[in-house]
Amino acid sequence: MSTRFTAKNVALVCCFAPLYAVFSFWSLFPVIGAMGKVITIAAVISPLMGIILGPSLGSVTVTLGGILGAYLAQTGPFGPLSFIPGAAAAFCSGLLYEGERRASAVLYSVLLLAFAFYPSTGPAWLHPYFVWLQLAGLVLLISPLQSKAREFMRNQSNSLELSLGVGLISFTATLFSHIVGCMMFELLYLPTSRDWQILTILYPIERTIITIMAVLIGAPLIRTLKAFGFEIGGK
Question: Cα(209)–Cα(190) distance, rounded to whole angstroms?
Fold first, then answer.
């Protein structure tokens, strides 16, 4: 997972970070419980950054692009810290593409427990059904299917397998990002039982749409980058 910040890697960050910031201007979903704040299309790009650049370089790129985007767009739900869920998604997807499934599963499990059982406002106390999809994501993460995602992505001649690989990694990463975002939501907005009840219905739809968009953008992008000799994964 180590990444040397060579001139090439710095150049990649300088290219991809502003591109990520641009996507912060396009709204995708409103944030329930945070009036006037939105989730942007940058949420779709975050897991792709991790796949393309690797966990370290991808998360640095999303961090810098996210800070720039938050400063310019000012629509993030967590102010200048709105980059954190996106950086988490990039880190998770990068780990999964590198085959570090065990490390991803440990991080995912620890954060899910911390979020669910957060004192007073955690969904385990107020509305336990909220975490059903996040638990399903954990099952997917430790399943043999997730371990095949990287293998699927290496098969450039099969569009279905490539799309499935991008989808599996992006879905897990966007759920990981959602857990991180929910923890920040707990700290800043003190959600109620009603908030968790509403979000129980909405966030599976939201995460599914993000995954589908990531596949539609990511599969052809990765195929094109590889065709031009770019080494996916930041190697």
Answer: 26
DSSP codes joined into one string, the chain:
------HHHHHHHHHHHHHHHHHTTSEEEE-TTSTT-EEETHHHHHHHHHHHH-HHHHHHHHHHHHHHHHHHH---TTGGGTHHHHHHHHHHHHHHHTT-HHHHHHHHHHHHHHHHT-TTTSHHHH-GGGGHHHHHHHHHHHSHHHHTHHHHHH-TT-HHHHHHHHHHHHHHHHHHHHHHHHHHHHHHH---HHHHHHHHHHHHHHHHHHHHHHHHHHHHHHHHHHHTT--TT--
- What per-residue confidence (pLDDT) applies to 29? 78
- Yes or no: say if 232 and 52 are a contact pair by the CB < 8 Å rule: yes
Query: Rounded distance, CA 231 to CA 196, Å?
Result: 41
Q: What is the pLDDT of residue 32?
A: 67
What tens digit of pLDDT does each residue of 215-226 get? 999 999 998 888
Per-residue model confidence as pLDDT tens digits over 40-73: 889 999 999 999 999 999 999 999 998 888 887 7
Secondary structure in 3-state letters for 192-223: CHHHHHHHHHHHHHHHHHHHHHHHHHHHHHHH
Per-residue pLDDT for 33 more than 80?
no
Cβ neighbours of residue 103 closer than 8 Å, sequence gap 6 or more: 95
Residue with tokens 């959600």: 191
Global confidence as pTM: 0.91
